[in-house]
Design brief:
single chain, alpha/beta, three-stranded parallel sheet, 11 strands, 42% helix, binds NADP nicotinamide-adenine-dinucleotide phosphate
Length: 284
């Protein structure tokens, strides 16, 4: 078997074209969607992510506003800014780029963002929405994975899904979103004993652990669908996911590459959430 390589760049481009059309429709009604991005400190990886998000906004016609704070600033000015952005009519989405400096109370920062503008989907209200199946903003990375599966016409209902990784931003929301779509879901994490005994059962395997070569061909069943969320930079500088891509592609039916799989979808779903927010606010 040779796997179909899921082209996240192509799917992403198609979704961004639709988003740009929705932005035009909003502008015709006098509304320009706006995303506020708050950055604290000067983490180089965060700077790249923020630049990519703002560039992607510009490409589809979303206005973005960037607010920068020094790494040693107190949390209060950031909390005050979030409160101000919550009440601004030209801001439809607010995101605080993580990680934050250690002295920042991340839960308090995230809970201060209005649930109606929480386009990252990290506010407790939105997390609760995932549990009951009524999400305002699905978190961007798992949302992107669902869109990739839908785009490929991969059925989720009734499938055995194994999610490797149980973080709040990827693994847990991923599991909840797939459970809402009637999959039978198992979540594995670093303390799971004998990972392979779970992964071998997966019709759809989603891996988000941040460990290169964690998933080897003998750990997956022939014909499985493999979604590799991991992003790891090897000492050589090469970017790889969490799976043995070359080994797996000879055994599975679908696989996402790294880079070019889930990565581009994450920013795309941020754009989708921001436009959805502007549409909801303009309909009020
Ligand atoms: P994280 O917060 O570090 O969580 C990693 C999860 O993987 C944890 O639940 C951890 O288990 C589990 N894990 C670690 N080693 C494991 C092992 N050997 N076997 C099974 N599970 C293991 O990371 P994250 O933020 O979820 O990100 C995960 C990966 O996805 C990273 O490579 C990150 O760069 C990437 N990522 C990609 C995108 C994208 O757009 N493509 C977006 C976000 C993240 P414990 O809970 O037991 O510690």
């Amino acid at each position: 078997m040779t796997a179909k390589i899921i082209d996240g760049v192509a799917v992403s481009t198609a979704i961004r074209t639709e988003i740009a059309q929705r932005v035009v429709a909003l502008r015709d009604k006098g509304v320009t969607p706006g995303l506020a991005v708050i950055v604290v400190g000067s983490d180089p990886a965060s700077a790249v992510y923020v630049r990519n998000k703002m560039r992607a906004c510009a490409e589809v016609g979303i206005r973005s506003f960037k607010y920068e704070f020094a790494a040693d600033c107190a949390p209060e000015p950031v909390l005050d800014l979030i409160a101000e952005l919550n009440s601004r009519a030209d801001v439809h989405g607010i995101l605080v780029q993580l990680p934050l400096p250690a002295h920042f109370p991340i839960p308090q920062i995230l809970q201060t963002i209005s649930a109606d503008k929480d386009v990252d989907g990290f506010h407790l209200y939105n997390v609760g929405g995932l549990v009951v199946g009524d999400t305002v903003f699905p978190p961007c990375t798992p949302y992107g994975v669902v869109k990739l599966l839908e785009h490929e016409g991969i059925e989720i209902e009734g499938k055995n899904v194994v999610v490797v990784g149980a973080s709040n931003i990827v693994g847990k929301p991923m599991a909840l979103m797939l459970m809402q779509r009637d999959a039978t879901v198992c979540i594995c994490h670093a303390k799971t004993r004998d990972l392979a005994q779970f992964t071998i059962l997966a019709d759809i395997l989603v891996v988000a652990a941040g460990k290169p070569n964690l998933i080897l061909p003998q750990m997956v069943r022939t014909g499985a669908v493999v979604i590799d969320v991991g992003i790891n930079r090897l000492p050589s500088g090469r970017l790889v996911g969490d799976t043995d891509f070359e080994g797996l592609r000879k055994k599975v039916s679908y696989i996402t590459p790294v880079p070019g799989g889930v990565g581009p979808m994450t920013v795309t779903m941020l754009l989708a959430n921001t436009v959805a927010s502007a549409e909801r606010m303009s309909a009020r």
